[in-house]
Design a protein that fits this description.
Largest sheet: 5 strands, antiparallel
Oligomer: single chain
Helix content: 25-40%
Distance between the termini: 65 Å
Structural class: alpha+beta
């Protein structure tokens, strides 16, 4: 059993802030906003995305949402260089070089 403590956004959507894999302290249980579920699926690893866990407090459904994370400067430079190289190749093909 997993305890998911959440911050409610709407009646059917809440961001999971804390996950307990063992019985949490009574202070947390008495305080309230949590659901219990049997299993938590592993999130997909998506390049350039961060994973945020969410739940539906009414139904107990659990899911992940993926949000963009900014690229590091080195990654931005590498991506731009790859785009420049692709443009140079396309231009050379157009010009018949």
């Amino acid at each position: 059993m997993k305890w998911l403590f959440y911050e409610k956004e709407t009646d059917t959507r809440a961001k999971v802030m804390l996950i307990y894999y063992e019985t949490p302290p009574n202070e947390l249980l008495d305080g309230g906003n949590y659901i219990t579920i049997e299993d938590i699926p592993e999130p997909e690893q998506v390049k350039g995305k961060s994973v945020l866990p969410y739940c539906n407090p009414e139904t107990g459904d659990f899911w992940y949402e993926y949000v963009d994370i900014p690229l590091a400067p080195e990654e931005q430079l590498k991506e731009l260089q790859e785009q420049i190289n692709a443009l140079n190749i396309a231009l050379a093909e157009i010009m018949g070089v």
